[in-house]
């Protein structure tokens, strides 16, 4: 199993190399295992998807630090690929932020995303989000950087100011978070290609773009995003939206008289899925210890 330190170092090195980095959203251990075997440079633990799959609740500040740490740890242990994990607002004040960063790092993920929303936070592509004063988030970023044990553990600083305070304020905040020590900058929910271009070209540090199908931001090709200057493109919703659609269709098929016709061509092959989940190791163990 690859160590957490080597995963972090691998991602930190990749960020210095040319080319945009694609990060699919993982939200449960099936999605994590599937994505892990596909050769991505990094995976993104989506807060929306993780809260939905783990608790069956909306991403509205209802998941606790313990809930999210549990999932981050499980994902990190089950995968060889570096993971950036959603850490919401840090789950409280400055002491909580330090506590969160230390435990996420100890859990084995390669980085944490922290945002400047007021608590309780909301999904970044939903209305009604409010942000804390800039100075408060600057202090959170500084504390997060101080709390990590190794500089390869990445701090992703996100601002949700665009929707309520405008793009200029969002850019001002991202610049302040950069000066506070953030490794990756994340301006949430730009609403046009022109805004995306301004964001991508505004900073020296790597800039992340959030691609949410049906969200507030245009979803562009990876080549266009790279041309703009984005370094990291996350796709947090793609997996669970695809899963939801697929499950709905096959469950509808189960309601029909001809079940096989309703599931034909829509199912992962059972033996392959068993191997994906690690049954080969179980079979080998049983052979080695057969009486």
UniProtKB/TrEMBL annotation:
Originating species: Yanghanlia caeni
Pfam families in the record: PEP_mutase (PF13714)
Molecular functions per Gene Ontology: lyase activity
Keywords assigned by UniProt, alphabetized: Lyase
Matches recorded under CDD domains: ICL_PEPM
UniProt keyword S-adenosyl-L-methionine, yes or no: no
Protein's recorded name: Isocitrate lyase/PEP mutase family protein
Signal peptide residue numbers: none
